Amino acid sequence: MTSVTSTLILLFAAFTAVTAKTIQIGTDGLKFVPEAVEAAVDDVLEFHFGPRNHSVVMGDFGSACVPAAKGGFFSGFLPAAEGEENNKVFRVTVNDTSPVVFYCSQNSHQHCTAGMVGVVNSNNDSLNAYKTAAAKIPTALSPAEVFGGVLGPRPTETALAPATTAASSNGASRGGGAGAVGAALTVGTLLFGLKEALEMI
C-alpha cells in the first residue's frame, strides 16, 4: 500500500508542477492577449488561435517581423471562424530565461505591421520599440515549416495556469528547441497512472 501511495503522490506532483501560460491570438482584434507574459524554465506557452487565420513566430528584437536567426518556433497558420477558436493549440516549452519576442506573420491586413506582437519576460519598452519598428515593415516573413513546438488538441478544460502579465523590467524567457507537449502529464495520463496503481492493491 505504501508503494501505491508513493506512486500516486509522484503522479500528482508531476502533474501539478506543469504551468501553462495561455496566450489568445486574434480573439480581441489583431493582438495577442496578453501581449506580455512572465514564464519560468519548463513552463509552457500555450497559444490559442481565434478568428481569421493567424500564426505565431518567434523573432529577434533587432529585426521586426522576421523569424529568429537562431532557434525559435513557428506554429503555421491556424484559421478559425468568427467567434470561434481553432481546435488545435500550439505549445512551446520554455527552456531558458532569455527575453523572447513573437509576432503573427499573416500578411493579409499586415498583422505584424499592425502591432500583432508579444513578448515573454521582457518589458513594455522593448515591446513598444518592436511595435514601432514593425509599423515600418511592409511584409512579415514566415519560416518554411512548423517547428519549435507541438500542435495538439485544444483543451476544453485545463488545470494549467493562465498567462501572467509581465511587470518586471529584467525578466527573460525563451521558447525553443524541438519543444515538448505543453502539459507533460495530462489528466488522462494521471488517471491512467491511478488505474495502474489501484490494480497493484
Automatic annotation (TrEMBL):
For this UniProt record, the keywords arranged alphabetically read as follows:
Signal
Signal peptide from the UniProt entry? 1-20
Does the keyword Signal belong to this entry? yes
**CDD domains per the record?**
Cupredoxin
Q: Which InterPro entries match?
A: Cupredoxin, Ser-rich/MCO-related
Q: Any keyword Signal?
A: yes
- Superkingdom, natural source: Eukaryota
Protein name as annotated: Extracellular serine-rich protein
Species of origin: Podospora appendiculata
